[in-house]
Amino acid sequence: MTSAAARGGRSGGAGAGDRSWPKAGRFSLDDNLAYAEWRDQTLARRPTMAEDLVVEVRDLAAPTPSERAEILRRIDAANMALYATNADAGDDELSRRDLIAFGAAFGMVAIEDHRSAGADGIVRIEVVDHGGRLGYIPYTDRAINWHTDGYYNFHGPDRAIAAMLLHCRRPAASGGINRLLDPEIAYIRLRDEDPSLIEALMRGDAMTIPAGEEAGGRPRPDNVGPVFFVHPRTGALGMRFTARKRNVVWRDDPLTHRAVQSLLGVLHDDPLIVETRLAAREGVICNNVLHDRSVFSGGGRLLYRVRYTDRVGRPGALS
Ligand SMILES: [Fe+2]
Question: What architecture is the 50-308 domain classified under in CATH?
């Protein structure tokens, strides 16, 4: 196999003082051997079908050791798993409690403080016609373009949204399909095309979300940050991205614009994009993977979403 990584070299871009990739390891642009080894392992173990990601969970509030192991195996391989459970509490409060317990079984406890969350940290993703969520695309029946969660509220790798649960209570009558892509695959595609595209997207000023107003009128300043970043403690790759055209300002240089176009190309038709339409009592557990949503109608679609600054993991394990 010949890869861009093995060939090495970069076609210009940031100067040495601007480098924002790690000194060593798989995400260092100076360590092509480590990258090539990780890349080959990552692609070799990658599930290609949504069905390969599904794990049946009998009781969401208390996944068994084997159910947990099956989910973690998929997280290790793809940074995401799909779960399905038959046992549904039916009751809204009970269902919410089960979901929080499910996250905690994977060490997910640091829940984002979101303006629209309930006291337990769960945000209801549904169509609204009044209240603080009105006017925001997630709470309509419209399509949502590719993004990672929390891209507009980045305050360093430590505080970034690292994981997410998306749990379906009620599907739409039609539509509401989610496509999912692991950021590691996006990284690999771009680095193999040209490592300088990664260099551009790891810059700390690659993507700016201009100042705006949050629901409730609270002002939010410009949010500036990279697209790809590496968590300093875990060494994990994080990603901050939106494919929306409005309300995003890209660093104004040819390399950044080329990198964004390449990324959009990957999101258009990469063979490792997974597509799913969640039914009731099904959900996604993931390390904040790229995702979108198609338009939907009818059925009173209701999803619960919980976002965490922890990655999906093994509580009690040394890491
Ligand atoms: Fe999202």
Answer: 4-Layer Sandwich (3.60)
